[in-house]
TrEMBL record:
Protein name as catalogued: Threonylcarbamoyl-AMP synthase
Enzyme Commission code: 2.7.7.87
Family: Belongs to the SUA5 family.
Location of region: Disordered: 230-260
Positions of ATP binding: R59, N63, T119, S145, S153, R198, Y285
Functional description taken from the UniProt entry: Required for the formation of a threonylcarbamoyl group on adenosine at position 37 (t(6)A37) in tRNAs that read codons beginning with adenine.
UniProt subcellular location: Cytoplasm
Keyword vocabulary terms for this entry: ATP-binding, Cytoplasm, Nucleotide-binding, Nucleotidyltransferase, Transferase, tRNA processing
Catalytic activity from the UniProt record: L-threonine + hydrogencarbonate + ATP = L-threonylcarbamoyladenylate + diphosphate + H2O
Annotated ranges, domain YrdC-like: 14-202
Organism name: Paenibacillus pasadenensis
Biased composition annotated in UniProt, kind: Low complexity: 245-260
Gene Ontology molecular function terms on file: ATP binding; double-stranded RNA binding; L-threonylcarbamoyladenylate synthase; tRNA binding
Length: 397
């Protein structure tokens, strides 16, 4: 696996960027930075290239990929002409962490990219290296996050190296990513209404400020009008309870793992027969240690996290606690890590995946995570925490 820039600490040269782009154009896989997480890119038109992406990641092939473009002209021939709302979203949020699910032009990209759907997910990343690379490659670039499937997404080139070194042609190092969580995946649901299929870097508040009504896909299995109830369903494996790590509530947990765990009170909850963003049904972003998430009333959450940690340590487990800068000092466990600050949730988003990897490096066997408020980027953060916890989520009010 090649690394660019090749000089330690050096800047990426034009020649290096062109070398990476030439590999992409030749059907090889190249990891590159975006403003959200690192992506593993391949020529979206080439089934052979895209198959290498699935192989390197160990990713289920019914999970479609996002196609990355560097300019609006690349939409031509790729998707049907945009509707009015789609055009407004692209104008307002591109380049940026918003992925639009659009009607595909049949045959424009490999069916392996769309997993047989008649739609294709497209975004224009807000990262100079990504844009230059895509432009130089001269093709639409299909790119899932550049991690082994199920592992936390990579927010630094060394994470890509850890997971995919030796399995891909190259890695372009652009330093740490900015947002730290993946893009928001949306589809238009009407002239002024947008449905969030995966929460991410663009918040519901930003979409509303742009004049859109926001619908949140809450559950693939019947739907929960009440987000708090969606939390309750995951409670079977009570962290403090005698059931300990038996994790009995597998079905409920699996259901919950499909859903953004909470919705702001003002967002409408929309039941759906099947998950619209197929990736949402997989357990994702998970550290190797078994994680549990406790959310709700601050004081009671802290007491519950500490009690659960004490109980597990009493049984000889190596225990991690994931908290925030404001709260770590109060906890006792083998490994206590802050994922940013509650006062600045964007810092929590930036560091979440690196912190999950650090729990692995330090050998945490069980991890309790403290939830955060779900406004702004907090919605995406709680979604990823809940998925990292495999749906083992308790809500205390
Ligand atoms: O920030 C991001 O979006 C990163 C960077 C690399 O751009 N990429 C990323 O890709 O997160 P990936 O493959 O890990 O997630 C793609 C998500 C999945 O949840 C997938 O199901 C959904 O997008 N998706 C892709 N195509 C879709 C489609 N046609 N309809 C609905 N959902 C789709
Ligand atoms: Mg991913």
């Amino acid at each position: 696996t090649k690394r660019w820039p090749s000089a330690e600490g050096g800047a990426l040269t034009e020649a290096e960027l062109n070398e990476a782009a030439a590999l992409l154009a030749a059907g090889e896989t190249v990891a590159f930075p975006t403003e959200t997480v690192y992506g593993l890119g391949a020529d979206a038109r080439s089934t052979e290239a895209v198959e290498q992406v699935f192989r390197a990641k160990g990713r289920p092939s019914d999970n479609p990929l996002i196609v990355h473009i560097a300019g609006m002209e690349q939409l031509r021939g790729l998707v049907r002409p945009l509707g009015e709302a789609e055009r407004r979203l692209a104008e307002r949020f591109w380049p940026g962490p918003l992925t639009l699910v659009l009607r595909a032009v049949p045959g424009a990209v490999s069916p392996r990219v769309t997993a047989g759907l008649d739609t294709v997910a497209v975004r224009m990343p807000d990262h100079e290296v990504a844009l230059r690379l895509i432009r130089a490659a001269g093709c639409p670039v299909a790119a899932p996050s550049a991690n082994r499937s199920g592992r936390p997404s990579p927010t630094a080139a060394r994470h890509v190296q850890e997971d995919l070194g030796g399995r891909i042609a190259g890695i372009v190092d652009g330093g740490p990513t900015g947002v730290g969580l993946e893009s928001t995946v949306v589809e238009c649901a009407g002239p002024d209404s947008v449905r969030i299929l995966r929460p991410g870097g663009v918040t519901p508040e930003q979409l509303r400020a742009a004049g859109f009504e926001v619908l949140l896909e809450v559950d693939g299995a019947g739907g929960h009008a009440d987000p708090a109830q969606a939390f309750e369903e995951g409670m079977g494996a009570s962290p403090g309870g005698a059931s300990g790590e038996g994790a009995p509530a597998r079905d409920a947990a699996a259901k919950l793992a499909e859903a953004p765990p909470t919705a702001p009170a003002s967002a409408a909850a929309v039941p759906a027969a099947a998950p619209r963003s197929p990736g949402m049904k997989y357990a994702h972003y998970a550290p190797r240690g078994e994680m549990r998430l406790i959310a709700g009333d601050r004081e009671r959450v802290r007491a519950a996290v500490q009690a659960a940690a004490d109980e597990a340590r009493g049984r000889g487990r190596r225990v991690g606690i994931l908290a925030y800068e404001e709260t770590t000092a109060a906890y006792r466990a083998d490994i206590v890590l802050a994922c940013g600050s509650l006062a600045a949730p964007e810092t929590a988003a930036q560091s979440l995946y690196a912190v999950l990897r650090e729990f692995d490096e330090r050998g945490a066997e069980v991890i309790w995570a403290e939830g955060c408020p779900t406004d702004g980027i907090g919605l995406a953060l709680m979604n990823r925490l809940s998925k990292a916890a495999g749906g083992r989520v308790e809500h205390i009010d």
